[in-house]
Amino acid sequence: MTLRVYNTLTRSKEPFEPLSPGHVRMYVCGVTVYDECHVGHARSAIVFDVIYRYLRHKGYKVTYVRNFTDVDDKIIDRARREGVAWQEISRTYTESFHRDMDALGVLRPTLEPRATEHIPDMIRAIAALEEKGVAYCVDGNVYFSVSSFPGYGKLSRRDRAEMLAGARVEVDEVKRDPLDFALWKRSGPGEPSWESPWGPGRPGWHIECTCMSQKYLEESFDIHGGGLDLVFPHHDNEIAQAEALSGKSFARYWIHNGPLTRDGVKMSKSLGNILTISEALQQYHSEELRLFMMMAHYRKPLDFTSQGMAEAQAALDRLYSTVERLEGVEKDLRQEVQEESGEGPMTGAELQGAALALWHRLVSFPRAFEEALDDDFNTPQAVAQLFDLNRLVNQWLDHSSSFPHGASPSLLERLRSCYALYSEVLGILSERPEAFFRQRQERNLARLGLTRGEIESLVKYRDAARREKNWREADRIRDELLSKGIQLLDGRHGTTWRIRAGSAGE
To answer: Which pLDDT score is estimated for 343?
Structure first.
């Protein structure tokens, strides 16, 4: 199946064909570094991380550029409030962004240019636009003339009234048209400024992305991405600037992720319902957040709720539990081979036969997984394929009573490669199960009001009751721990315990 991508520009799914065969050039609008990032930023970052990962998985060379807006009114305002240099605000929150992305397992892009590193490029571009007659200067401010670009608004497809409302135009601006937007802004007292042909000032927001994307990806490139809220005016303005400069089509495919709300309400500081990424990571494992984001299609709105996160936690637990069970089977199989026991109900040929049913289903899963992602990066379908595989594996593990005799190295290797594929592309299942569950324990023991020692003492007491065949007492202890969110797992190598997903108010 050919990869098909929904293009905001055409409002349709289109076969994906990069301009240069085998090489994808992708630009995604980054953050303005004036505050901590919230879970809405996490959604966009994870969406494009999966796209980046999948394109590389398909064999493309990918040049991925994501910028930082490191000079802006919001940055300047925060610096004034805190009494520090604006550069300090930019540096602090750029570092915070990188910590958050690394913690979420979001891969670093190929390039992460900063606006302040490209001021000369922007000045040259603005001067060229002015020379072409599509920009004009008023009292040290330079504006793009929207009426000079006939295709303005072709991405958002808004009429003029909608554009005026969406752009939140100020009535006292001295522009030829209320929709004209700033390319260069005259700096006020104490504000950051750079020398230019129009006097000291700084670039407008829109011109930076046009200049940085074209600098690193050429005048025309493959994918331009960002949140749906950027379609107008930011991306409409980028198109106008870029195509007025080059006379060429700017980006071939426009990809936009849907908005994230919290309990049905848009996140805002005034409502006090913003959840930063660092706060979320204190409550949830990074892969739980990733899985939650991927359980909805990237173009659809997504509501961040405790119930939704509990479901993602339970789902990830099931996956890691299966991987843990498979590791136990591999351990037993290695031990059996080393001991050369050769005993058991099946010969080597029968070992393969016992796994044949699972094997036939297993070989189709990688292609089914890719077909899901080839359909406009449909992560809900890809995740569904993963859980279907996981269900079959657990059935096989449950019904094969004479391990390791029901396993074979080739089957286990095939399973390992499938789970590795999901780890590579979706960015989950990247840890060893014991490390994953230990993190859960450490994060939640205090919330449950229990200590590790108390739990392990009860587990030992229960083990003693089981050895004495005191099943009533053993069940009582199991149920007592379960009521507190502690799940006991009885296996060939003893009893282990873990905190159930969704316990302790997660």
So the answer is: 39
What separation, in Å, do the N-terminal and C-terminal C-alpha atoms of the chain show?
40
Identity of the residue numbered 128: A
> Mean pLDDT, consecutive 10-residue segments, the chain of 506 residues?
95 98 98 97 98 97 98 96 97 98 98 98 98 97 96 94 70 80 94 97 97 98 97 97 97 98 89 94 95 98 97 95 86 56 42 60 87 98 94 79 56 84 92 88 74 86 90 91 85 76 52
Q: Angle formed by the axes of helices 73-82 and 86-103, to 10°?
A: 110
pLDDT at 503: 58
Q: Cα angle at 265 between 260 and 271, to 5 degrees?
A: 115
Cβ atoms of 109 and 52 within 8 Å: the answer is yes
- pLDDT value for 348: 44
**Residue ranges of the domains in the chain?**
4-136+205-257, 307-431, 434-505
Contact assessment for residue 258 and residue 300, using Cβ atoms and an 8 Å cutoff: yes
pLDDT value of position 118: 98
Residue with tokens 């005191």: 470
CB 69 within 8 Å of CB 209: no
Q: Are 179 and 160 in contact (CB under 8 A)?
A: yes
Of the candidates 425, 382, 417, the residue with the CA atom closest to the CA atom of residue 46: 425
At residue 262, the 3 state secondary structure works out as strand
pLDDT at residue 378, rounded to an integer = 98
DSSP summary character for residue 32: B
Angstrom distance (rounded) from CA 110 to CA 133: 35
> What distance in Å separates the CA atoms of residue 222 and residue 208, rounded to the nearest whole number?
18
Neighbour count for residue 126 (Cβ, 10 Å): 25
Quote the CA–CA distance of 385 and 380 in Å, as a whole number: 9
The phi, psi pair for 83, rounded to 5°, reads 70, 35
DSSP state of 248: S
> How far apart, in whole angstroms, are the C-alpha atoms of residue 410 and residue 13?
39
Tell me if the pTM is above 0.85.
yes
Q: Which of 13, 70, 374 minimizes the C-alpha distance to 208? A: 70
Nearest-CA neighbor of 184 among 121, 242, 235? 121
What fold is seen in the domain 4-136+205-257?
Answer: Rossmann fold (3.40.50)
